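User: Last request for today: this protein with KG4, please.
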Amino acid sequence: MIILGIETSCDETAAAVLNEEKLLSNIVYSQTAIHQSFGGVVPELAARAHLQTIIPTIEEALKQASITKNQLEAIAVTCGPGLIGALLVGVNVAKTLAFAQKIPLIGVNHLEGHICAIRLDYPDFKPPGIILLVSGGHTLLILVEDWSNYQVLGQSIDDAAGEAFDKVAKMMTLGYPGGPVIDNYAKQGDPEFYSFPRALMKKKNYNFSFSGLKTAVLYYINSQKEKFVREHVPDICASFQKALTDVLIEKTIRAAKENGIEQVAFVGGVASNEFLRKEASTRAKTEKLRFFFPSLDFCTDNAAMIGRTGFYYLSKGQKTSLSLEANPNLKLGVPLQ
Ligand code: KG4
Ligand code: ZN
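Assistant: Here's the final one, the structure of the complex with KG4:
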């Protein structure tokens, strides 16, 4: 079965073609250049850019996969959560194409897409597993009992992990998106330079809080001389990154141990963080757990993960009606209409 995956939930216009589990093409048009000067995603601009680039992106995905649209057998599209204007572009293009080609449509939850990204690199990964989903909009610790059975153990009660990266980078005027920028600066810095707070780390629950960490970085910067801050940008980035990743790793390991699960996967944009990947791999050995990270292209938003999730449901005989609607607040595990 040849499937086209479409993703437009935020600031990446993406299309991918899969032959069942095999990825044939994966095109991502990033809108970073459009939003950079605003220091964050401007929803209206995002929607407009998706509108302009969605068709060329799909055409490029088909071309690189060496297939024509007439060979497509199904279409999988992100229908939420995300920015409504952005989601509407992908959903409407997918519905139109599915109707015109008379092929099945499958709506995909973006969060489930991030989880399924692990299947692109590790086809043999079988649940149960503990998955930490860390992106710009979400921080969720999930017990995956089966590929469609998710139990959210905990989540951020305020800022998402990626959001904290973006906000700290913005307050230090380092650029956008903040995650990759801080990741890069931190490589030259000392993670022990300053000890920022690790909120809720010792609490028994699986929730996270990063808003206080962000404020602590702000207070620290404001309490120091400008020249000192400028000279220690890598150290501050490394210390902030260490505080945040310490909590992520600690809680994820505890969730695995308390639930008697050996397999742990980190997914979403923040899972591409080099320091997190290194620290977690070291801890995996001492804790006798198996840690999995999707390759970098499958951590940040992409359509391959959407196509892969769609294929899973299609192979179970499920599809979505053409009345599928975009839902900006879609929750994980909620069935689509
Ligand atoms: O999964 P994603 O592409 O989009 C959402 O679904 O939100 O995640 C984007 C988030 C942004 O906040 C970005 O700063 C963060 O992932 N991110 C990173 C890195 N690369 C992207 N955070 C830390 N380190 C990175 N290398
Ligand atoms: Zn995402």
